[in-house]
Amino acid sequence: MTLKESDAFSPGKTPHFEVSARESLSDSQLRRNLGKATRTIREKRAAVVGEMPDWEELREAGHALKKRTMRHLDDYLLQLEQSVTQAGGQVHWARDGEEANRIIAEIVRSHDAKEVVKVKSIATDETKLNEHLERKGIRAHETDLAELIIQLAGETSSHILVPAIHKNRAEIRELFMRELGVEDLSDDPPDLTNAARLYLREKFLKAKVGISGANFAVAETGSVCVVESEGNGRMCTTLPPVLVSLMGIEKVIPAWRDFEVFMQLLPRSSTAERMNPYTTFWTGVSEGDGPKEFHLVLLDNGRTEVLADEIGRQSLNCIRCSACLNVCPVYERTGGHAYNSVYPGPIGAILTPQLVGIGKSGSDSLPYASSLCGACYEVCPVKINIPEVLIHLRGKVVRHKQDKGGLKGKLDPENVAMQAMAKTFSDRRLYEGTQRAARIGQWPLARSGAIHRLPGRLAGWTDARDLKPVPDQTFRDWWRSRNGAGTGQ
Amino acid sequence: MRIALFITCFNDTLFPETGKATVEVLERLGIEVDFPVDQTCCGQMHFNTGYQREAIPLVRRFVKVFKDYEAVVAPSGSCVGMVRELYPMAAELTDDRQLLYEVEELAPKVFELSEFLVNKLRVTDVGAYYPHRVTYHPTCHSLRMLKVGDAPPTLLRAVEGIDYVELPESKECCGFGGTFAVKNADTSIAMLGDKLRHVLDTEAEVCCAGDNSCLMHIGGGLKRQRAGVKTVHLAEILAATEERKQP
After folding, report:
1. What is the Cα–Cα distance from A21 to A60, expressed in whole angstroms?
2. With contact defined as beta carbons under 8 Å apart, do B13 and B146 qualify?
3. Which one of A18, A435, A450 has the shortest CB-CB distance to B183?
4. Domain count, chain B
5. Please, which residues have CB within 8 angstroms of residue A400's CB and are 6 or more apart in sequence?
6. pLDDT tens digits along A359-392
7. Judgement on whether residues B54 and B90 belong to the same structural domain of the protein
8. 3-state secondary structure at position A374
9. B2 touches chain A (CB under 8 A)
């Protein structure tokens, strides 16, 4: 498996999707692991969603709730700050990842902690918190089983929900034997889990600080919620005396009763479960129960920019269920690492370029990492119209290239071809002339009724596909010959 | 009833037989077909690739050419999808309220051939004869954007002599995706590989769909593999009779 040191959220340029995809597409183990895993979860999801008579109404409700929250995000965030503070927690505002990391490292240092235990959190992956803590001499232990696996392997997540989806049990067994020093381990899942359990239990009991992300935070009550399957998250949020939660500002929900909708939508869409196994809520601090100190760090990191975009802002509605990844024919074949971002798959293809900004070469390729088949939109529990946002972002990428790319942007072969074609299509006579020219111009390429090789960038087509030559008569020529002069002439 | 045929630039130039078949089927059902020759391209390729400023004049042109017709029919799910679902988004990019209004008036009158036949004309048997083993690939835009549902298989099952066979994993994209097929050729081909495997598993002689763009991709792969399976547009199967030359 390739080791990715930097992604769209790290400094420096990231590779284009098509380049990384080429590499992962030829990894037969990855293709097998992913194909099997996504097919299983797809079928399970379809079954548990199918048994809900009001699923479409629930999706509509989730969509409406999120839309309303985004419209009044400023109000709800201030209300959340007030509620958390009233409940004995402390709220910090972080403009970007760097500021968030600084705040969190400072909290950890103020308690003289050299080790922290972590709940699975993509927000902390986005800010590269672990690397930052490492530089400050603090070791962060991932406690989610899959996160632990990839941390031990020195890899990055390839799926929003199941970060180690690209690995099979034989690979995990080898890793545990090597990294945890376990001898005599089988590749039976309970055995593997037990090995991780023994290793982690000690970390839980020793840690002074726990760090989590947040799935939801309720503005009305100040309650923060983590949704997980293993119980390790609950250990992190209840055992250590200090708890720090990093949360993207879009995760706020207005009221406690909104859970009615999200707690039905999320488990069925993500793990295909009717009810989520471990759902932990906490409201500030409670005397004699759980952490004595609670910090909520609210992260912007590009989110207000996304919010300002009328079409793009729906990307913030995401509840990180990852249903869109599991149904995506592109993701299923390339895997998550090809996206070079902590947010892979269809949601990553719209979220990443917006969070880091258009014009950062690598992530500009992400809106194109889709055939626009629409399977993602069909399953999204909060009805994010991902194809619409993809098209919208492609427009932004092209406009950026044309307007800010200088002469290079203007002379880009794709741009030149598109301009020429737009001109052709805007004039019927020019269009008909081009049809004739194509028929004559193709003779060096067409051999025995098929084109086997195209030049330049179009060679991508003929790598594995023949092309049908332009026939002798266009439809309109036929129509004219049939109807005399024809209509509209 | 008089309708306008929206041939699409792709069919006009590369697949004229599909256009002829569409005219034949509609006329057989007593529909008067008009072909406004000023039509060129709906702008889908430009719009979906990000050249949206360049697509706007094509949107205007389409609206001008077709706005006075009672109904517009096209043998392409994706081009109809562009007009019906994405033209409003395109019109929103301009400050032209008149254009948006005209787009919203026109869009619901534009139909993909199979949905026009089954949902609008309420016809399922178009009097076709096609004695071949055929499987059907529902293209993504007709399936998920236009939601044509069972219209195409309903029409195919009614064809005399046909040996219709379901395609496994039919709803999965074939990997065409317009410029995606070239910009992300490797991923596109990986998707195509699985689609071809499913097509071959059906042991059909013909793979049919409502979009020649997807069919060109699937057919291009089949031909390269010398698979001996051909791709034929749905309209051409529906136009086929004992007398007419079989596609």
Report:
1. 34
2. no
3. A18
4. 2
5. A358, A359, A364
6. 987 999 999 999 999 999 999 999 999 999 999 9
7. yes
8. coil
9. no
Which helix or strand (DSSP H or E) is residue A450 part of?
A: strand A450-451
Residue B233 lies in a domain: yes
Assign B73 to helix, strand or coil: strand
Single pTM value for the model: 0.96
Query: Residue B71 belongs to what domain range?
Result: 2-120
- Domains of chain A are 17-304 (3.40.50.10420), 413-482 (no CATH)
Asked if residue B52 and residue B11 are part of one domain, the reply reads: yes
Tell me what the mean pLDDT of segment A94-118 comes to. Answer: 98
A374 contact residues in B (CB cutoff 8 A): 140-141, 144-145
Residue A2 reports pLDDT greater than 70: no
| Interchain CB distance below 8 Å, A425 and B9 | yes
* Nearest CB partner across the interface for B37, out of A458, A460, A486: A486
pLDDT-derived band of residue B55, with 50, 70 and 90 as boundaries?
very high
User: Is residue B166 located within the same domain as residue B73?
Assistant: no
Pairwise CA distance, residues B12 & A38, whole Å: 40
A373, B188: Cβ pair inside 8 Å?
no
Residue B98 lies in a domain: yes
Q: Closest approach of chain A CAs to the CA of B91, in angstroms?
A: 13
Distance from CA of B231 to the nearest CA of A (A): 12
When scoring A22, A373, A410, A429 by the number of chain B Cβ atoms within 10 A, the one with the most, hence best to mutate, is: A373
Domain ends where: B96, B120, B144? Answer: B120
Residues of A with CB below 8 A from B27's CB?
Answer: none
Residues in chain A with CB shorter than 8 Å from the CB of B36 are: 487-488
Q: Is residue B197 part of a domain?
A: yes
How far apart are the C-alpha atoms of A280 and A228, rounded to whole Å? Answer: 8
Q: Which residue of B has its CA nearest to A43?
A: B169
**Interface touch B45/A421, C-beta < 8 Å:** yes
For A197, other C-beta atoms within 10 Å of its C-beta total 13
Domain-ending residue, one of B120, B142, B172:
B120
Q: Among B177, B187, B216, select the one facing A468 at the smallest CB separation.
A: B216
